[in-house]
Amino acid sequence: MERSEITSIGDVLRRAIQETNMQGRLDELRAADLWPRIVGPDIASRTMKPLVRSGNMTIRVVDSSLRHELSMHRTLLLREINRLMKKEVILSIRFIG
């Protein structure tokens, strides 16, 4: 078997991601990883890591007063996540107890 060209691993991975339509899921995982950067270490330590499915981010917050405060800033948080992602990845944020 003879190779016609050498392809970098990065190119192979990019092509595989495109062919399997995984870019959206990878973007959702990156958006979830932004949570501590957006809210800061104190609030991040008082919440669970966000779960994201189909553009909907769900964050468990045990403290009801913090949950209410975060809910009041939901639109701002949503806008900041999408701004940092440079595209609309998150469509909604839900805080649960």
What are the secondary-structure elements, in order, as H or E?
HHHEEHHE
Structural class: alpha+beta
Total number of helices: 5
- What characteristic shape results from the CA principal axes? elongated
Please report the distance between the alpha carbons of the first and last residues.
59 Å
Helix amount: 55-70%
Strand fraction: 5-15%
- Residue ranges: pLDDT <50 for 5 or more in a row? none
How do the strands line up in the largest sheet? 1-2-3
Provide the residue-averaged pLDDT.
92
Radius of gyration: 18 Å
**Total beta-strand segments:** 3
Question: Mind summarizing the main beta sheet?
Answer: 3 strands, mixed
Key structural traits:
single chain, 97 residues, alpha+beta, three-stranded mixed beta sheet, 5 helices
What can you tell me about this protein's structure?
- This protein has 97 residues and is α+β, with helices and mostly antiparallel strands.
- The chain has a three-stranded mixed beta sheet with strand order 1-2-3.
- The mean pLDDT is 92.
- The termini are far apart.
- It is built from five helices and three strands, in the order αααββααβ.
- Helix content is 56%, strand content 13%.
Question: How do the helices and strands line up, and which of them pair or pack?
Answer:
Blueprint (H helix, E strand, L loop, with lengths): L8 H11 L3 H11 L1 H11 L5 E3 L2 E5 L3 H9 L1 H12 L6 E5 L1
Parallel strand pairs: 2-3
Antiparallel strand pairs: 1-2
